[in-house]
Amino acid sequence: MSTQRLHDLSRCCVHTITTKPWDIDTAVQRYAQEGIKGITVWRDALAGRDIQQTGRMVRDQGLEIVSLCRGGFFPHTTASGRQKAIDDNLRAIEEASQLGAPMIVLVCGADPAQPLEVSRQQIYEGIAAVLPQAASAQVKLAIEPLHPVYADTRSAISTLAQANDMAQLLGSPWVGVAVDVYHLWWDPALQTEIARCGRNGHLFAFHVCDWRVPTRHLLLDRGLMGEGCIPIRQIREWVEDAGFTGFHEVEIFSDEYWAQDQQVFLRQIKQAYLQHV
Amino acid sequence: MSTQRLHDLSRCCVHTITTKPWDIDTAVQRYAQEGIKGITVWRDALAGRDIQQTGRMVRDQGLEIVSLCRGGFFPHTTASGRQKAIDDNLRAIEEASQLGAPMIVLVCGADPAQPLEVSRQQIYEGIAAVLPQAASAQVKLAIEPLHPVYADTRSAISTLAQANDMAQLLGSPWVGVAVDVYHLWWDPALQTEIARCGRNGHLFAFHVCDWRVPTRHLLLDRGLMGEGCIPIRQIREWVEDAGFTGFHEVEIFSDEYWAQDQQVFLRQIKQAYLQHV
């Protein structure tokens, strides 16, 4: 492989959920101290806070806000459920705007009480409904395909091909895709589809972690980079060949790591980032 | 949907693993009593037994042996590991022949210590290595794509498209595919790929169960048909439109059901089969 190791943290971003036990003040302070340059803010970290002021606090510490996590969850069997989802996504766009986040990651949703094709149509309609607001707020929307293990309740968009199709169909410079190695590493079409979204100019985000062998838990057992079987550097090569120059976002959900000292964990993240991304 | 409900058990097959607490004598006797017409035998059920005699016992009870489960697991980082796998698959072909099973289901394998493409190449080579023996024993080999959640250690073949590609590449009437709704229901290309393997004459098997919402365990929480979110009847329609006339095989791994009275469970299976397949 020709791709070089990363030698600094200038493109390293950490998601607040990765260090879930910390509030956002602590997270921002510690990330900055450790030389991390980017942060993706989860909406739960903003609960009850002045969002504009929080955005200023983040920037004052020298961190760049990469995105707001997360919007989506558009499908529902009822029209009122779908309208609620649209309203919530409009709020997320407003929050991103206040925070100064240039992008929202969309976990698109799925309702197990209806066929996947119906959920996909509702996702299309949901994104289309909030797109004018996103464009006027200059907030990008990144469709994140989720691993097929989450097709029941979290995402009817399971592959990058589907996310690319959806982004093309919506045909807006404000809609693109997020590539997360955890969700997509198994896909034989991954390289081709990464190249495709690069060509189309809608490769908006790149998320990293690892797939543990064995995986203990469907949701909360993501690994630190290098701990599992995902060819992370290979996928980074494909993403960079596709023209991506953005942040590498570390997004780890792990009840095991959350139970540990988060400062120690953050240093492990830095080391794993430099060795394995 | 135009597909009719099933009105009898003439195409119902149960995998011995589904009623794991029963030995094969008990399973065969109870399946026959309940009017089930087919059985797929897992190799663990044959351990320490006279295989030819077991085959006669099954047929004497009026059951048709649909397949032997399972061969595969070809990928390994070492040549000796790969040779062991080939030897084991040759033994499986011999066992199928003795049992009178016309087919072996292949769970193809994956080694997390090497890239998926390498594992896929080794799967191709492994099947090619045992194919002459399968042909001369008149035992079909059915490549079963497994859900991407098993791409780390169980199968580098995650979609029906990949299984179809592999079967076409091997180009033998003795190699085809097994469609299991649990592994494939999420795939937007499923209908197209079912039609494709039908056209190619290599749609060999059809397995049913359901995807529970939520799923408690990665391996042992499969649901009874109707208990989850898989559009089983829709998929049966696609399979039958593709010309498939074989058995509908009930394959459920469930520590929950295994802990219950297996006779009660078997009656639940019959009911779920007639209502939801």
UniProtKB/TrEMBL annotation, chains A, B:
Single GO MF descriptor: isomerase activity
Top-level taxon in the UniProt lineage: Bacteria
Every Xylose isomerase-like TIM barrel domain range: 30-268
Key words, A-Z: Isomerase
PANTHER family tied to this protein: HYDROXYPYRUVATE ISOMERASE, XYLOSE ISOMERASE
Phylogenetic placement of the source organism: Bacteria, Pseudomonadati, Bacteroidota, Chitinophagia, Chitinophagales
Protein name listed in UniProt: Sugar phosphate isomerase/epimerase
Pfam families membership: AP_endonuc_2
Membrane spanning residue stretches: none
Xref: InterPro entries: IolE/XylAMocC-like, Xyl_isomerase-like_sf, Xyl_isomerase-like_TIM-brl
